[in-house]
Each structure stands twice: as C-alpha cells, then as structure tokens.
Specification:
The protein has 322 residues and is of the alpha/beta class. It has 13 helices and 8 strands. The structure holds 6-chloro-9H-purine (ES4) and zinc ion (ZN). GO terms for molecular function: deaminase activity; hydrolase activity, acting on carbon-nitrogen (but not peptide) bonds, in cyclic amidines; metal ion binding.
Amino acid sequence: MSLKNVPKVELHLHLEGAAPPAFIRGLAKRKNMDISGVFDADGGYAFTDFRHFLQVYEAATATLQTPEDYHRLTLAVLEESAANGVIYTESFLSPDFCGGRDVGAWREYLHAIRDAADQAEREFGIVMRGIVTCIRHFGPEKARQTALCAAETAGDWLTGFGLAGDERVGKPKDFAYAFDMAREAGLRLTAHAGEWGGAQSVRDALHDLRVERIGHGVRAAEDPALVEELAETGTVLEVCPGSNIALGLFRSWRSHPIGGFFDKGLKVTVSTDDPPFFHTSMTREYDRLADAFGWDDAVFTTLNTTAVNAAFCDDDTRAALL
Ligand code: ES4
Ligand code: ZN
C-alpha cells in the first residue's frame, strides 16, 4: 500500500535541490553549458559524499540564471510535490544563487518564485511559503548580506530565515548577527544542525541563534540530556530520514532515530530535503517509515499536525490546513 494520497505538510525543502535532473539538463542544453559531471550514467545526480553533494548542487544550480528560470523551476517542483499529496510546503530560497545577494535582483527572483507559487496554488492546490537561507560555508559576511535581502522582503509570504550548508565549517555564533537582523525583521528562525555536527552543534544553534526549529537534529540522539531539552523546549525537528540514509548517516530506516524521537514525544516532522538527489519523495518517506516503524494513519496525522503548528505561515493559513 502506498501513502501517496495522504495529505502531507513539508517544512524542509531546498528549492534548487528539488529540481528534477531532466529540468537542469534541459536548461544546460539551452544555454550550451557543459555540466556532464553533475549526472551519473542513469541521468540522475552523481555524488559520493556530502561535500561532493554540495559541489554538484552548486554546479546544477549554476544553470538557473534568471527569475524566469526560477519561475519554471518553482512550478515544476510544486507540481511534483502536489502529486505526492503535499498540501503545504516551506522551501529554502537562496539569495546567494538568486542574484548574488543584491537586494534589487533578489526582489525580482522572489517576485517570480511567488508568482509561480500563486499559480501552483490555483492549479494544484498546494500552498508554499519561503524561508531565505544563508549558506554556512560561504561565511558570515555573505550571511549578513543574505539576511539583509530577507529583512527587506519579509512578510506574509517570505516568513523565515535559516542556515544551511556545510555544518563542519564555522560555528552558529558566527551567524548570530545575521539571525538577529532576521529576527528584528519579524522572520521566524530555523537552522541546520545535528546532521554533520553532533549534539553540541544543536545546542549552539539553539542557544546562539535562538531558533525555534532545527533542520535535521538527528544526532541529538547521541545525548539524552539534549533530547530532554528538545522535549522541554518544544523544539521542532525537520527530520529528513531518506536524505540521512542516502548520505550514509544511518545504515537503515529501522536504525534511524526518528522512531525513538517520536516515541519520546519530541516534535518531529518529516521532509525530503532535496528529493531527486536522494531518490526520494514525500510518498516514499511515508511508505518507508510505515514499513520501518509500523506507523499508521494516526501517527502521520500527528506528524502533520505538529508540522502545521510549527509552520511559519500566518494563523489564517494555518487554520485552513488543520
Ligand atoms: C544544503 Cl546549501 C544546501 N543545499 C541543499 N541541501 C542542503 N543541505 C544542507 N545544506
Ligand atoms: Zn536541508
């Protein structure tokens, strides 16, 4: 049985990372760009580990060069999400890739993405909101410029600010200024932590950036006191099990910590991260979790209610999802 038609809420999706390989191949061909190293023999994305993944991601993203490219990308991504039963999605958007952190250029990219999101809502019934993300391995100065782009466009659609990229580079504290700027602008906050860094990395994101959600957070499982803190503070985890398994962080679905986290009452949600890169979809995530942990519709309803309550949208939008 497939859980394809179960309504799903996704909080952690990188827009460029959701680009179908054929879409990127088509753009590269039209622009006469040679990005053959990006693909494997089957035409999928090819990478060996997380660092290589980030390089391939950036090489594929180099084909996206105009607001119109992002308009088409957003429509394609949302159509695919809706086909998997996703009714609401929060997507990470990167001014680094959309106009090189120039506020004026960023406004044009954001306008195109929003326009595509409005069209997708009318045509496919899926609701999208945006989270501007800075990229850790690009450094704190670029993060500040990214936060300025976010602050200038904050509102009812661009609702959050986040930190992605290589968790092994730098410390959350280096990004505190950018996060303070985003918080001042009314943006809600999340950060990737506890994926390539351990429990201390999650603590640092919580205490130094004061985020209300953590992207991944799965390595908190190594520290029972931190699990306790996550439970007590009601921190929401954007867990992406298929991504973790594809990148070799855990060997199997059954050994993934999401099962134990749920049993302990942590606020867990399920997302795909970068679905074509990890050969996954929201349907596959749900199907594998059902197989691994015996989760039924009641569990998935709990996960989705948690996700709706943790979504960075306004309360009217939230109420329509519950
Ligand atoms: C990421 Cl910068 C970036 N892009 C896509 N997926 C990611 N995961 C962590 N950082
Ligand atoms: Zn991610």
